[in-house]
Structure formats: C-alpha cells, structure tokens
Amino acid sequence: MLRSLCLSLALGTLLASPAFAVEPGKAVGTVTIGGVTATLAVATESTAENLFDDKKKDTIITLTDKPLGGTDASDDIELSMRARKGELVVLMLRIDGTKLVNVGVMYKGLSGVDKLPGAWFQYAATGKGAGTLKMAKRDFDGKSYACDVQFAAAPAAPKKVEEAPAPAKPAPAKPAPAAAPLPPASTSSIEPKAATALFVAAMMKKDEHQALELVKTGIDPNSKDKDGIPILNWSVMMCMPAVVQALVDRKANLKYERAPGLTIMAEAGACPAAAKILSAAGAK
C-alpha cells in the first residue's frame, strides 16, 4: 500500500513538472506591452560592471523575439534603436548575484528604454543563465506590461576583432570640413520646448557634443520631453556620463521617480559610469 502511494506521488510530481526543458539560447513565453503580445524566442547571456562595485560583474540576460544579428547582447543603446524601428522586442534582465535589479523593456515606437524595478517581477533562477520571469499586468508611464517566460540563455558570441588595415600612403591634406551649426550662445532665444527637443534629438543620435553645448548654453536641467521624461533620465538611458555630470552640476532633480520605486539610480542600472556620478551626488 505504501509503495503504491509513493509511486502515485512520484507520478503526480512528474505530471506537474514542465513538459519540456528550454534549449540553450532559447526563450519560451510572451511579453505583452500596451495590449500587444510578442512571443520571445531568443535568450543571450552577457555581463556588465556592477553598479556599486567595479570588482564585481552583473549578469545580463537579453530576451528577444528575433535573433540579434550583429548587435551586442548588452548594447542597450543599439538594441533600443532597433526596437524603436520595430525590428525587435527586447527584455533585458540585470541580475546582481541572485537578485533581479531591473528589467529593461524596448519595443516599437519607444524612445530609449523603460526600466522596470526587479521587485515588480517574480523571478526564479533554475540554473546558470536559466530561469523564469513573470509579472501580472501592470501599468507604467501610460502603458501596460505583463510577461510570462522561461529561458535558458546561451553566452553571447565574442566580439570580432577586426584586423587593422595596411597603412596607406598619406593623402594630400584637405581643408577641415565646416563644423556643424551649434545652438546660439544663449538658449534665451530658443523656446524651452524647442531646446528640449534638440537635446532629445542629440541623445538619439548619440551626439554628446551637441547635448553638452545645449547644457552649457543654459537649457533647464529639469526640462522634460513631450512624454514627461526629464532630460537627465534621457542622458542616463543613453549612457552619456559626461552629460549626466553636466546636468548634475547644474542641480538637476535627483529625486524624480517616473513610477513608485523607479528612481534615477534604478534607471542607471545599465550605465555604471552614470550610476557612480549620481550616487556621488546623493541620488538614492
């Protein structure tokens, strides 16, 4: 009788367990953003410098609906630009040891990355680079988010080192091209909204010089774009530490939260250099 009971319990356990194991490099599940569901299929593992200890590395798990192609799995800037054009849907998990720090979300039409706090998710590691991630429908910044996915990430392919080309014969000197026009000496002649739009455009083009020039000429360090995102958050999302430092020096608000618990430090999860600047300035 006891033996039969044990066999029944064992059989019940087997039936209750997942019917399949996820293959390395694969994800099985979905993410729903604003009512639109995407099926996640690819899982890649890489590393990034820990936010507070440069001797440690955080694990980055990148989940996408399509193969990454030539894009680095930890390059959230390139990924966000591809996602904005509708080429990819991306979830990027940042894990410190066993703790899920945040999840970056990238999708069609979004400028930058929405970083959702890890505490919003149910995350469980099931092995090296493998685990489950779930979140019931949750509203954030005018969008609803939900996910239920199982993954087993494969290590990111090493970056190809290109051979240096053979030295060419020196070409005749050419006159330097004319410098791109910069904003006027003072933004007082530019409408605040226009100045903010120029700054955001510089961020999207990764034009650090133009962004710094706008800061120098007097843009409000606490101005926000049409979606209510402060320019400091933009400089953090696009990982431009020099611009972050310039805005911090001009007393940008470090206490703004785009959602409860989503502090500027949480948004700096993928940019350790910016996180260090913000932490030194007193951001929490």
Task: Give a brief outline of the structure.
The chain has 284 residues and is of the alpha+beta class. The chain is built from eight helices and ten strands.
Walk me through the topology.
Blueprint: H1 2-16, E1 26-33, E2 36-49, E3 57-64, H2 76-84, E4 90-96, E5 99-106, E6 114-117, E7 122-127, E8 130-140, E9 143-152, E10 154-155, H3 192-204, H4 208-216, H5 231-237, H6 241-249, H7 264-267, H8 272-280
Parallel strand pairs: 2-10
Antiparallel strand pairs: 1-2, 1-9, 2-3, 3-4, 4-5, 5-6, 7-8, 8-9
Helix pairs in contact: 3-4, 4-6, 6-8
Would you kindly provide a written description of the structure presented here, covering whatever features stand out?
With 284 residues, the protein is of the alpha+beta class. The chain has helices at residues 2-16, 76-84, 192-204, 208-216, 231-237, 241-249, 264-267, 272-280, and strands spanning 26-33, 36-49, 57-64, 90-96, 99-106, 114-117, 122-127, 130-140, 143-152, 154-155. It has two domains: 21-155, no CATH class; 187-280, Ankyrin repeat-containing domain (Serine Threonine Protein Phosphatase 5, Tetratricopeptide repeat). Strands 1, 2, 3, 4, 5, 6, 7, 8, 9 and 10 form a ten-stranded mixed beta sheet that branches.
Mean pLDDT: 81
List segments where confidence is low: pLDDT < 50 over at least 5 consecutive residues.
9-19, 182-188
Q: What series of H and E elements makes up the topology?
A: HEEEHEEEEEEEHHHHHH
Which structural category do the helix and sheet elements fall into?
Answer: alpha+beta
Number of helices: 8
Biggest sheet details: 10 strands, mixed
Helical content (DSSP H or I, runs of 4+): 25-40%
Q: Count of DSSP E strands?
A: 10
Shape annotation: globular
Number of structural domains: 2
Radius of gyration: 23 Å
| Range of strand content | 25-35%
Distance between the termini: 60 Å
